[in-house]
Amino acid sequence: MHKRALWTILVVFGVLAAAGCKKKVDDGGGSSRPPSSTPAPPTQAAVELRIAYGSEKKAWLEEQIKAWNATGPKTAGGAPIKAVGVASGSGEAMQAILDGSSRPHVFSPASSAYVALLNQAWLSRDGHTKALAPAGEPIVLSPIVIAMWKPMAEALGWPGKDIGWADLVKLSRDPKGWATYQRPEWGTFKLGHTHPEYSNSGLLAVLAAAYAGTGKTAGLTPDDLAAAPTRAFLEEVEDSIVHYGKSTSLFIDKMVERGPTYLSAAVLYENLVIEANSKTPAPSPPLVAIYPVEGTFWSDHPYAVLDAEWVGADERAAAQAFLAFVKARPAQERALALGFRPADPAIAMAAPIDAAHGADPQQPQTLLAVPDGATLEKLVAAWRATKKASEVTLVFDKSGSMEGQPLAEAKSGAATFLDTLDDRDRVTLVFFDDKVYPPIGPVELGPSRAMLRQRIEGTIASGGTALYDAVAEAHAAMRGKVAKNPHRIHAMVVMTDGVDENSSTTLPKVTKQVTVEGDAAVSIFTIAYGTETNPDALTQIAEKSRGTFSRGSVADIRAVFRDIGTFF
C-alpha cells in the first residue's frame, strides 16, 4: 500500500477510536464534558458572628437571627456569614467575657449599666488602656417594673394612687402584713429580685432602691451609697426578699406557676408581665406592672460591637449588617408584638402594651440616670453589705457510689457553693449515706469557711443512700429556726447521686413535711448528680418546698452549685 494512503487510514482510525471513547463516556456518565475545564474557585470559610445577649429578649432575637441567616448574608469578599446567639444573664455574660470563657463579637446586655460595668472591670486590669465596649445603641426597650398581683396592687390604692418603693418598705416592715389592708389571708409582703451580680433586673432593682433612699433621680455618688439613711433603706427593701436568683425569667415563671402565696411582687421587665398575661391560660389573678413613683429605668438593650483583638473587619461589618436588620421596621414591629417597646420611635405604640395586658403605655413618667461604672461597683458592694443574710443547710450524699472522680468533683462543687455565700450567712453541713450523720453547725460562715471546706474535703465515700431520712431530719431542724429569725432566707441544698434505698421514712411523708404552709418557708434546692438518681422524687421535694430542681454531672457540678448559690 502507498505510504500516504496508509497514513490517512491510521488518522481516520484514530479519530473514530476517539469518538468511540467519547461516546462511552457520554453513555456511562449521562452527560458530556470537555476534556479540560477551569477549576472551581475554593469555597470560602464561613464567618461566624457571635452575639452574647441578655436572655430577656431570647424569643425575639433568636427569631431575628434565624431570619437574617436565611437571607444568605455574605462579606464584601463573598464569604458566607452565620450569626450565632448565646443567651444568658447580663452579668453572667459579662463575667464570661472577662474570664475569657466567651469571646463574642457583639455584647447586648439588657441594660447599658452592664456595658459600663464591663468597661470598668476591663480597664482595671493590667495592660488595658481602652474600653472594651462602646456605648452601643438600643435595639429594643422595656422599662423595669414591679410586677404585682392585681388584687394586691388594688389593695395598695392602684391605679388611682402611684405606688413606690416607700410603700413596699412600709408594708414589709408592718408586723400585721397584709392584714393592715384587710387581707390577713395574704400573710406578709414577699418580694423577689434577681442577684445583681448576675442579672440586670437585680442590679437595676438595687439601683432604683438606692435612688429612692436618697430622694435623687440622677447624680448618685459613692458617698450617697455609703450614707446611713441609704444603707438603712436598702436593708429594709432587702429584708422583704424571699430569695434571689440568676434568671429574671425564672422569677416570672415560678411566680405564675405558684401564685400569690409564693411572691407578692417581683422586679421584672414590662415585657415579661405582658408575656405572662398573654399566655393561655392567663394567670389568675392577672399581673400588673407598677412603675415606681420614685422613678425607674429603661432596660435599653444596647448593641455594642466589641473593640477586641478577636473582632476582625469581617465580623465588624457583619455585626453592622445584622444591627441594620434588627433595627428595620419588620423586626421592630415583631418586637412590639412580643411586648417590647420599639427602639424606632417612628413605630406607634400599640397592643399588647396596654391595660388589658397589665401595662401602661404612658409610663414611666420619671426616669433615673444610670451612674458610671465606678459608682455601680460601689452599689454592688453596698448591696453585699445590706442583702438579706441566709440560713443554709447543705445535705451531702457520701454514699459508696460517689467513690472516685464523682466525689472529687462534688467536693469541688460544694466548696464553690460556699464561696458564693456571704460571711454573714449561717451554714450547717449534713453528710449522709445509709445513715444520717450529726450536723456540723450551724456556724457563721466568715470565721468557719476554712473549717467547713476541710470537712468537705475529708469526706470518704461509703455505704448506701438514706436520702429521705436526711431531708426529713435536716428540714425538721431548719424549720425550727424560721420563727426564731424571720429576717433570714432559710433554705436547704440537697445533692445525691442515687435512689433512696435505706430510709425509714417515705417520699409521701417527706413531701408532706416540706410542703410550705403560710409564710414559714424552708426552700429546698435539689441536685440530681449523675444518671442513677430519681429526678421525679427530687422534683417533688423541690416544688413542694418552693425551691428548684437541677441536674448535675461530673463535668458541670461546680457550675450547678454556683448557680444555686445565686439564690442567697
Average residue pLDDT: 91
Radius of gyration: 30 Å
- Separate helix tally: 20
What is the architecture of the largest domain at the second tier of CATH? 3-Layer(aba) Sandwich
CATH superfamily (homologous) name of the largest domain: Periplasmic binding protein-like II
General description of the model:
- There is one protein chain.
- Helices cover 42% and strands 16% of the residues.
- By secondary structure, the protein is of the alpha/beta class.
- Helix 4 crosses helix 14 (373-386), helix 15 (405-420) packs antiparallel against helix 16 and helix 17 runs parallel beside helix 18 (507-514).
- The longest helix is centred in the first third of the chain and has 27 residues, at 3-29.
- The relative contact order is 0.10.
Write the layout of secondary structure elements.
Elements: H1 3-29, E1 47-54, H2 58-70, E2 81-88, H3 90-98, E3 106-108, H4 112-123, E4 137-138, E5 140-149, H5 150-155, H6 165-173, E6 191-192, H7 200-214, H8 222-226, H9 228-239, H10 248-258, E7 265-269, H11 270-278, E8 287-290, E9 298-299, E10 302-305, H12 313-327, H13 329-337, E11 341-342, H14 373-386, E12 390-397, H15 405-420, E13 426-432, E14 440-444, H16 445-457, H17 467-482, E15 489-496, H18 507-514, E16 523-529, H19 535-544, E17 549-552, H20 557-565
Parallel strand pairs: 1-2, 1-3, 6-7, 12-13, 12-15, 15-16, 16-17
Antiparallel strand pairs: 3-10, 4-10, 5-7, 5-8, 5-9, 5-11, 13-14
